Amino acid sequence: MLDIPYAIAVKEVEGKFYVHVPDFDIATQVDDMDQAIKMGRHMTQIMMAHYREEGKNLPEPYSIDIKVGDYDAVFSI
User: Fold this and answer.
1) Which H or E run includes 10?
2) Do the beta carbons of residue 12 and residue 72 sit within 8 Å?
3) pTM here?
């Protein structure tokens, strides 16, 4: 778990898993759900470190409205 519980949203399309971290507006594509969770966590950690290095305030978790029906899964990491 991260020190702040950000959401990652995952949608499977044609055998690929699209990972979106709404609060940082970043996304990627991976091959399976396990990778999706790991990559979502990794991307979030990178963005948090970047924001801190730049002296920026981190976005509030769940600051972006997530339409759960648009995704196959939404996780808090």
Assistant:
1) strand 7-13
2) yes
3) 0.86
**Residue 33: both structure tokens together:** 């759900």
- Residue 28 contacts by C-beta under 8 Å, 6 or more apart in sequence? 18, 19, 39, 43
Rounded Cα–Cα distance for residues 60 and 35 (Å): 25
For residues 12-22, average pLDDT: 96
Q: How far apart are CA 14 and CA 59, in angstroms?
A: 32
Alpha-carbon separation of residue 49 from 1, 4, 58, 67 (angstroms): 15, 12, 10, 27
H helical segments located in the chain:
33-54
DSSP 24: G
What mean pLDDT do residues 35-61 have?
Answer: 95
Between the two ends of the chain, the Cα-to-Cα distance in Å is 5
- Of 13 and 66, which is predicted with more confidence? 13
